[in-house]
Amino acid sequence: MASSAIHLAIAKKYLEKHKDLNYKEVIKGTLYPDAAEDNDKTHYTDKNRGSDNASHIRGKVNLYAYLKEHAVLNDFELGWFLHLVTDYLFFLECFTTEYLLSKSYQEFCDELYHAYYCTNLYMEEKYDISKDDFREYPNEYYPGIPYEECILSKERIDHFIERVSSIDMENYVKKIKAHKRNIQP
Length: 185
Fold this sequence. Notes:
The protein is mainly α. The chain contains ten helices and no strands. α1 packs antiparallel against α2, α1 (4-17) crosses α9 (154-165) and α2 (23-35) packs across α6 (75-93).
């Protein structure tokens, strides 16, 4: 899963481009899937998602299953969907298959969560994220440290945030429904 700071940065950039949306509802929906008690349920995780690290991680989110249950997205559900899209694309686009296969699941998680601590402060400052953004789910907030080299470079994060926040969600939803599976925008 992408960090809460990444999710918030994407949601805030998306909201800058879609001012007609309810800001609080989108932010609340964006944080909800990780704050909920059953992450597999809120992420529509495939039960048979593969045993190798790459397919196991990349099978965490099922966008089509989510859309089957949420035919018309209100602002909260749009935030939730944006979260799922972010997680799906994060593992697909930010980490190569070779890298994921070279690590055990535990090694990958250790490196990933270390990277979150190394990038959170950077994202808080660059994308105007504060503890106040976590008011609905305060347990999701954790402060960062000054940036240091890790598996997530600042450039990769910035590019990813810009890319995902620029997706035309209406057309992307249609594309997923037409293919009846996860598919890149």
